[in-house]
Predict the 3D structure of the following.
Amino acid sequence: MEGIPIVVPVRFAASGLVAQTTSGWLSLEAVFIRGLEAPPKGTAIALRIALPGEATPEEVEGVVGERVPPETRSEVGFWTRFRPLPVASRRRIGRFLKGRNAAVVSLARRAFPRAPLCREVQLRGMSTGVVAHSENISRGGVFIATPQPPALHEVVELQLSLPDGLGAVLTQAEVVQRVLPQDHNSGHAGAGLQFIGADDAFRERIDLCVDNLLAARLKTA
């Protein structure tokens, strides 16, 4: 499907399944939603898609399409084709896709800015048990520093301590970037992880954390 590879927060609700996750691709016709769990194909689905610079998410509806399962060793998730978009939502999504920064951010797939954050991170997966620390965070994911990064496309359970003093947050995350110690030109060894399965409380705390970190950077700039 046409569109751009981009990571923005997405909340979906369908068939009793509700999750806070992120996108993989976005167009005016469809969105690829990341996650291990997917509603049945053909199911009606309600979406909230967060776009940079907009005060509230776009609330739209769609129909669940093809699923990409974990065993493909590719991006796990499912396609959703939009039902006719509200005029205002179509205009805002179109403006984002055609914006002067869309092509640039799509190279890194990151639509929202990163902020430095050094906190303890615990990963648990089929082949992974890692205690590390984060280097930076955005609304879509986190980069962790570790000499033994998990395999690309591995899905892990991620526990992250936040500076709000309310304890750690928990989410499923997929490894979308892997930097090995021998990759000297790529910075520190570690892994970029995209958030792909959490709840509303996770999204609220992550968004507030990132907003506070970015605001603090502006004050000290």
